[in-house]
Amino acid sequence: MHNLAEIATLFDMRADFVHGHPYGSGHINDTYCAYYDQSGQRIRYIHQRLSTEAFKKPIELMENVGRVTSHSLNQLLEDGNPEARRRTLTCIPSIKGEPHAIDADGNCWRTYPFIERARTYDTIESEAQASEAARAFGEFQKLAATMPGEPLHETIPGFHNTKQRFEHLIDAIEADTHNLAAGVQKEIDWFMARQSEGSKVVDMLEAGEIPLRVTHNDTKLNNVMLDDVTGEGICVIDLDTTMPGSAVYDFGDMVRTATSPVAEDEIDVSKITMRMHMFEALVKGYLSSAGSFLTDNERSLLAFSGKLLTMECGTRFLTDYLKGDVYFKIHRDGHNLDRTRSQIALAESITAQMDDMEALVAKYSI
Ligand code: ADP
Ligand code: GN1
Ligand code: MG
User: Is 28 in the pocket of ligand 2 (CB under 6 A)?
Assistant: First the structure.
């Protein structure tokens, strides 16, 4: 727990810090919810310390976030949206007028107004939620496409380079710094048998067969806030990886996180299955916003994207397990291994249903 009262002094809060506590279930940053008193009114803010392990150039990252959030707000205001400030993250400036602040230990912090009357979900509860989440991410891509200026910084180089992700796994197996590889030979064999599939989207991007767009790149279900009353996907959050990417990656991570009935770290893998009705809701929701710009090649990859992103995430969890859990936050021993196994189970369920998934995408693409 960081000293939030001190962090508060780094930002132009215009309110008095009362108290704060750790918040949310993100795997990367340290997120806190903090209560402030503003002329007798209690209001909440999110303070986040950026992960130094994940983000090597936090100031560039915050430049991206500043640009994306300003562009979103301008668009919403231009469209006359009465809830503009609830529908996009906005950065509270530091006392130096920047979107970030550096604390005495050199940590990079940011502050967002708390999006009230909405929440994120780790597991999905209804088709309507799946559809709304997917629609909101599609809207986000549409909005990002109109952002003026230079391309965004690549905040994590090769983030969705699945080919490279497999290579990093092989490096971790060979280094075996924690003598863990022998205990996970079955999982290693599973990934190694599928290495060639990891290149498909990377190769198509390189060949210009699908376009590079501005994408979110971390479209897991708990990175979109759904309105408490209407269920509408109102605000896409966690913009750390918004940068050049493929729409295919964004859709794939929705499939990974929104079609299984259980959480990503479920131990009982018999509960893990790709639910076709949730996939259908994702396809419908996503095409309702992204359908206007997706190319035929991108559409043809939507079903496969779920398998690809699930495998990719699996390689990342296994790599982190082998390296001693340095990247993803863990809450128990073997947590990253549990996550790896759940991704294997989900990828298998997707593979078994691939033909039906392809047919379903084709049905909505006519
Ligand atoms: P991480 O990169 O660690 O996943 P996130 O930015 O996704 O960090 O934040 C973690 C969680 O905190 C989110 O899943 C969400 O529940 C909550 N959260 C983040 N920003 C806000 C906000 N502005 N308003 C309300 N909740 C938020
Ligand atoms: C991380 O930041 P968060 O918790 O929303 C990760 C994603 C993974 C996901 C797996 C920047 O997402 O890429 O898919 O965990 N984000 C980063 O749950 O690495
Ligand atoms: Mg997150």
Answer: yes
Query: What tokens appear for 130 in the block?
Result: 């799946």
Residue 66: which pLDDT band, with cuts at 50, 70 and 90? very high
DSSP assignment of 274-339 equals --HHHHHHHHHHHHHHHTTT--HHHHHTHHHHHHHHHHHHHHHHHHHHHTTS-SS--SSTTHHHHH
Residue-wise pLDDT for 18-48, tens only, equals 999 999 989 999 999 999 999 999 999 999 9
CB atoms < 10 A from the CB of 142, how many? 15
Q: For residue 359, how far is its CA from the centre of ligand 1 (angstroms)?
A: 35
| Ligand 1, residues at Cβ distance < 6 Å | 23-24, 26-29, 31, 46, 89, 112, 114-115, 120, 222-223, 237-238, 240
Which ligand number lies closest to the CA of residue 238? Answer: 1
- Taking CA atoms only, the protein residue closest to ligand 2 atom 7 is 218
Average pLDDT for the chain: 97
- Buried (b) or exposed (e) across 195-215, using 16+ Cβ within 10 A? bebbbbbbebbeeeebeebbb
- Ligand 1 centre distance from Cα of residue 354 (Å): 32
Q: Are 61 and 207 in contact (CB under 8 A)?
A: no
Ligand located closest to 237 CA: 1
Give the C-alpha separation, 163 to 167, whole Å: 7
Q: Residue 39 C-alpha to ligand 3 middle, in angstroms?
A: 32
Give the ligand 2 atom nearest the CA of 217: 13
Classify the C-alpha dihedral 198-320-159-311 as positive or negative. Answer: positive
Which parts of the chain are beta strand (E)?
Answer: 16-22, 30-38, 41-49, 101-102, 108-113, 118-119, 213-215, 224-227, 233-236, 243-245
